[in-house]
Amino acid sequence: MMDNPTHALIVENLGKRYGKMEVLKGIGITVAPGERVALLGHNGAGKSTLIKLILGLTHPSSGRISVAGHAPGSTAARTATAYLPEQVAFHKSLTGREQLTLFARLAGEHPKTVMPLLDRVGLGPAAQQRIGTWSKGMRQRLGLAQALLGHRHVALLDEPTSGLDPMSRHDLYAIIDEMAANGTAVLIASHALTELEARTDRIAIMRRGELVADDTLARLSARAALPTRIRLTAREGAADHVQAQLGGTRVNGCSVDLQCTTDQKMAQLSRISGLGEVVRDVEMAPPSLEDLYRHYCGEGM
């Protein structure tokens, strides 16, 4: 099969065995320039093995991978790829500026790019401090700065928010958005489901070495046909009447929980509206990414 120029990363029918143990089975996934894809899966699902194969750190038993049109592990593929591991490691005796300057030189970048990158990830004020005095979150941000060196066609981010506080997580996703806007294909392996729900274009879910889902959140939700949850708050003393009219489950003295499918939602809202002032408030909760993840991984709701 010829490489599709619209895809920066192509993984095709990929398999990996260690002896008799099959850890990846026929994985097929593509990431286009500017696309942000979340890679989800329990520990042992095969995410780390897939990333190692894309990086060329190990070789597939079957199938193939193309990184910006090049073979994994080749000089061209390494030049085209940015990688942020979950556990970053740097020389503790170097300052942040010294360490990133070393990486810039190795990447063929001018040292003048270093301070703007450190400022961009919020490390400018600590640039002259030794890395051994930094927190885990600061070291993670330095890893992100390293990944931003040069223009990369593909970015592999393994648990990128590990060790980051909420504000730093927000800043990191803003940088990921900027990378994607500049044409980088971004693959994010993470367990932070709530964060990823609004931050990615597509969701890929792995289970026991297989890819069990790969689509937009909206299409995965439609295919799963999981119920929307509706919680009604009734006027004082009216919860029994609301339940009698609509069914559902009483939660406390004044609330009733309902469930409906997507195609039933408007009809259910019409019935609720018909009760008038008896209903004081309505809260709707469509299926979350966590619900979909559990569904496609074969777990009960």
What do these coordinates show?
The structure is a single chain. By secondary structure, the chain is α/β, with parallel strands linked by helices. It has two domains: 9-215, Rossmann fold (3-Layer(aba) Sandwich); 226-287, Alpha-Beta Plaits. It is 33% helix and 27% strand. It contains eleven helices and 13 strands. It has helices at residues 47-55, 75-80, 96-106, 114-120, 136-147, 166-181, 193-196, 217-224, 239-246, 265-273, 289-296, and strands spanning 9-18, 21-31, 36-40, 62-67, 81-84, 154-158, 185-189, 202-207, 210-215, 228-234, 249-250, 255-260, 279-285. The strands form three sheets. A six-stranded mixed beta sheet has the order 5-6-7-3-8-9, with helices on both faces. Strands 11-12-10-13 form a four-stranded antiparallel beta sheet, covered by helices on one side. A three-stranded antiparallel beta sheet has the order 2-1-4, with helices on one face. Helix 6 (166-181) links the parallel strand 6 (154-158) and strand 7. Helix 8 (217-224) crosses helix 11. The longest helix has 16 residues, at 166-181. It starts with 8 loop residues before the first strand and ends in a 5-residue tail after the last helix. The mean pLDDT is 91. InterPro entries: AAA+_ATPase, ABC_transporter-like_ATP-bd, ABC_Transporter_VariousFunc, P-loop_NTPase. This is Putative ABC transporter ATP-binding protein YxlF. It comes from Roseovarius litorisediminis. Its EC number is 3.6.3.-. Keywords: ATP-binding, Hydrolase, Nucleotide-binding, Transport.
